[in-house]
Give the backbone structure.
Amino acid sequence: MTATSPPPILATEGVTKRFGGVVAVDGVSIGIQAGTVTGLIGPNGSGKSTLFRLVSGEIPPDSGRVLLRGEAVQGRGASEINRLGIGRTFQLSRLYPQMSALENLVAVTRAPAAVAQARAMDVLEFVGLTALADEYAANLSYGQQKLVEFARVLVNDPDVILLDEPFAGVNPAMEERIIDRVHDLRRAGKTFLITDHEMRLIMALCSRLVVLDHGELIADGTPQAVRADPKVIEAYFGS
Amino acid sequence: MVAASVTGLAARRLTSGYTAAMVLLGVGVSLLPLMVSNYILTFVLQALMACALAGSWNLISGFTGYVSFGHAAFFGLGAYAAGIAIAKAAVPAPVAIASAAIVAGCAGLCLGYPALRLRGPYFAVGMLGVAEALRVGITVAEPVTGGGRGLVMPPQDVLLPAYFSMLALVVLIVAITRAVATRPVGLRLLAIREDEVAAEVTGIQTTRLKLVAFATSATLAGVAGGIYAWHMSYIDPTTVFAGSLTVRAIAMTMLGGQGTVFGPVIGSVVLSVIGEVTWARFPFLHNAVSGALIVVIVLFIPRGVTGVLQDRGVLPRSRTL
Ligand SMILES: Nc1ncnc2c1ncn2[C@@H]1O[C@H](COP(=O)(O)OP(=O)(O)OP(=O)(O)O)[C@@H](O)[C@H]1O
Ligand SMILES: [Mg+2]
């Protein structure tokens, strides 16, 4: 990173998380610039989802710091961190099953009650889900659930958006829709951190990739540089 | 899974019809004293009390899924707050009932703060322990409470005012529930029940919401206890802290539909009437039947009668029901 780049909107500093004997995230330091799309990749079990849980406040790190706009937020609690402007989807969608798609958004929106419904409808329209507004989340297909969850994150207009495998189990038409929306939002100044195993999509979407292996950051750079990095090749194809 | 769903005009008609039926029920109950004997009035007053307990339990447990086995704690505290105010200070009934509300509400805040950190069965059993501890505490504090022999107030005939007070409480609880259920805050409470971690991560302030719902629920149960003490002129710890009060409130709410507006009303009407004509004279049996019923409902109709009717397309899936 050059001396002229502005301070990152989101950063982790030596963040570590252990589960029993497993070090799921091991001293990871990443800085993310506002208005960029960064890919977080790595083999299964390399710690991507755990890092998301740490950044979103779902679990506290054992050590290290999470900085949002330069301010330490680790240990603040998930609800407060969300309110500070970090939105996140889950690897396996966690919608409220006994609520309609629309209600899933109304439940979390911080727009005044009188306009909550209208705000939620606007966001559903933005992701092309108007037709499913009244469908119960439990009755939606897997891909539809992912999209509703994406919409639910957007309803409070977070500055930083973490998407955990947004393309898993999603058909090509919907993939394209998600990619288009990510580009729209990035142009509007939003910051994305996205994990996925679908390299084709990650390459198309991200200007930068960070790579985890066994919880450690092993590479950080442009997609081209990372793809050619021997350590990355080793992590993916080595034994 | 969903056979049919009622939408559009038909849904709106059904919703208004259903709501109108509930309003009529309320009007009928308020006119009842003109028509029936004191025996029947006393029975309906008991049903109203059960409904108030069920409705107040629904506000915390039905919506957020934090199933409390100790709801009677707040009924008992309210009963003793009002009872002591009447017996020792000879205050008028409204003051006694207000003190019931305050004591139960404050207890709800103080107990909810630690208890709501527990999840699932730990919370349920924790609250059971709280109710039991309070029962013992009241029994031991004999100089103030009269201990195990109970607390005697000057006898007075207040059947009618107590009846209308309890009815007003039920109407208030339904009104609060409706206001909550039809606003985003109701969905936030339900979100806690559906997936509390997701609720947190999506920015819902679960701790604060749970505490407010719990304290409101406790306050309303306390008022029911206050009215009860005023009406009976005699209370004892075993009766007002009885686990059976909680179990019945749970059974009624679950039967009608947890997290719905009128579910507790439907459940308490059905179970009070059935109870009166069948097993009421056998208190032991009464509890066993309530307990068994909870199991059956949880297994076969977890969303209660309201949920069944909605899934069958008889009622629309409206949050106002
Ligand atoms: N709650 C937990 N308890 C114990 N171990 C855990 C827990 N969560 C994650 N782990 C372990 O931490 C490591 C990292 O898991 P994580 O889910 O973060 O990986 P991931 O990179 O998201 O993998 P995937 O690509 O399969 O989603 C794994 O070894 C996993 O078994
Ligand atoms: Mg993962």
